[in-house]
Design goal:
Elements: H1 4-17, E1 34-45, E2 48-56, E3 66-72, E4 79-85, E5 96-103, E6 109-118, E7 126-135, E8 140-142, E9 163-171, E10 174-182, E11 188-195, E12 202-209, E13 218-226, E14 229-236, E15 254-261, E16 266-274, E17 282-288, E18 294-299, E19 315-316, E20 323-328, E21 331-336, E22 344-358, E23 367-375, E24 384-391, E25 397-402, E26 407-411, E27 424-428, E28 435-443, E29 446-451, E30 456-461, E31 470-488
Parallel strand pairs: 1-19
Antiparallel strand pairs: 1-2, 2-3, 3-4, 5-6, 6-7, 7-8, 9-10, 10-11, 11-12, 13-14, 14-15, 15-16, 17-18, 18-20, 20-21, 22-31, 23-28, 23-31, 24-25, 24-31, 25-26, 26-27, 28-29, 29-30
């Protein structure tokens, strides 16, 4: 009799092979078949990037969690690998939840993940504890001692019901990991553990907590040094909107920037900001590339709206395009990975003073990389500037800049959707050195917008039919602009 893992591998190979390549985005990873949510185990191992993901191969809705697996050498073209984990032991019988991966000094690949186990008669009586599996990059053996970080290693007040998503790394001859929990005061906390061998763990400290703001339970932590700062990424549940509009309600993504004393294991928070301002972004995870870049991907969906989203394919869910992270002027910034430039074709460049409406020859499509630079200093009489995309007579999505308020409005309410869900986002958009730069990357229904070289980023999915591929620009008052358009193929 086949094991659960063997059954999943047989099923995904058969069903995945039946899905044509043109039924997927060009460079946004989708599940081999079935359901995808959080990215897991993003790592570089034996000459390739490996990305695992929360996975239910048998349906396009959430189910008992497996780990799907894909790999790439260029962060754009993905090859599917066999399902890596299935819920088939006592320690993870209710699901193999999120986690991460790290190469071992002896050349193997180690997975540290959350195993969900039943602890009572009711379906919701479960514990979430941390489990270990080690293998060759394709096949993994779960540790007989699982869970290796159990409830006994929680600090006082920590909850085993909400205890998940370990991020592991190897440093100075030891393994360290950060894990999320919710304490008795309903506060999200990020815990730090260390181990000599990834099997015997010791609780070290609590790095940070939500402190009554920035949501409640914090999920999917990541912790790394970048450009002289220490960055802690978390995905809070139950966020409230902030008065300045920076944080929207619901499921959020937050970057905490500060300093880290390794010896004392003390993180000092200095700044807090959203990671993404869009409607579809959650649970980011990063990898350090061989050339020293910190690259991030995230689940390009939204828990608050995902259950009612249309199922148009034999797969559901996708990852964002990988993005390079950097710190500039005290902010965590992002730009598309430079590998995207290898897909550029048919480059067009226009300079214009726009006053009214314009369509530029060749500037269209649903797979493109478009940068519009508005010389705001040279356009003092521009009262509003609008970029419309994925457009035809019936559909359009708008990006509208107001110089009076230095605000950018994203509006997908005309994209063709029939769902009563959030379609508007507003974000601060002050020109930098007199110029406002909008970089738009489209890959079918995936939209990613980078403002002022990634100072702020917005991710969203569009319900627009693929044939709606027009792009138009509109200005109330003269606007001096520079436009560079690349088709992606």
């Amino acid at each position: 009799m086949a094991t659960k893992l063997e059954e999943a591998r047989i099923y995904e190979a058969r069903e995945g092979a039946a899905i044509p390549a043109d039924d997927r985005p060009l460079f946004h990873l989708t599940p081999r078949t079935g359901w995808m949510n959080d990215p897991n185990g993003f790592c570089y191992y034996q000459g390739a990037y490996h990305l695992f993901y929360q996975y239910y191969p048998y349906d396009t809705v959430w189910g008992p969690m497996h780990w799907g697996h894909a790999m790439t050498t260029d962060l754009l073209h993905w090859d599917y690998r066999p399902c890596a984990l299935a819920p088939d032991t006592v320690a993870d019988a209710k699901g193999c939840f999120s986690g991460t991966a790290v190469p071992t000094p002896d050349g193997r690949l180690l997975l540290l993940y959350t195993g969900v186990q039943q602890v009572g008669d009711a379906p919701d009586q479960v514990n979430q504890l941390q489990c270990l599996a080690v293998g060759d990059g394709t096949d993994f053996e779960k540790d007989a001692a699982n869970p290796v970080i159990g409830a006994d290693l929680l600090p006082e007040g920590g909850s085993a019901v909400d205890f998940r998503d370990p991020k592991i790394w190897y440093e100075d001859g030891r393994y360290l990991c950060v894990v999320s929990t919710r304490d008795a005061q309903d506060q999200g906390r990020i815990l730090l553990y260390e181990s000599p061998d990834a099997r015997r763990w010791t609780y070290r400290t609590t790095l940070d907590a939500c402190r009554g703001e920035y949501g409640k339970m914090w999920e999917c932590p990541d912790f790394f040094a970048l450009d002289g700062q220490q960055v802690l990424l978390v995905s809070p549940q139950e966020m409230e909107a902030s008065p300045d509009g920076e944080f929207h309600p619901g499921f959020g993504t937050v970057a905490l920037l500060g300093q880290y004393d390794k010896g004392e294991a003390r993180f000092t928070r200095e700044a807090v900001q959203p990671v993404d301002y869009g409607t579809d972004f959650y649970a980011p995870q990063t990898v350090l590339t061989p050339d020293g870049r910190r690259v991030m991907v995230a689940w390009m969906e939204n828990w608050a709206t995902v259950n009612e989203a249309p199922r148009r394919h034999q797969w559901f869910g996708r990852m964002t395009m990988p993005r390079e992270l950097f710190v500039q002027n005290g902010r965590l910034c992002q730009r598309p990975v430079r590998e995207l430039e290898t897909l550029w074709q048919n480059t067009l460049h226009y300079r214009d003073t726009l006053n009214g409406d314009a369509v530029y020859d060749g500037v269209a499509g649903r797979r493109l990389d478009l940068t519009v630079t508005l010389d705001a200093a040279a356009s003092p009489d521009c009262r509003r500037f609008t970029l419309c995309l994925a457009e035809d007579a019936r559909h359009r999505t708008k990006v509208e800049w107001s110089p009076l308020y230095n605000e950018l409005l994203f509006d997908r309410s005309g994209c063709g959707t029939r769902r009563d869900i959030p379609h508007l986002r507003r974000l601060q958009a002050a020109p930098r050195d007199g110029k406002l730069t909008l970089r738009l990357v489209l890959d079918g229904d995936c939209l990613e917008l980078f403002l002022n070289d990634g100072e702020r980023v917005l991710s969203a999915l569009l319900d627009t039919p693929a044939a709606a591929d027009g792009i138009s620009l509109h200005s109330e008052g003269p606007a001096v602009l520079d436009l560079v358009h690349h088709t992606l193929a």
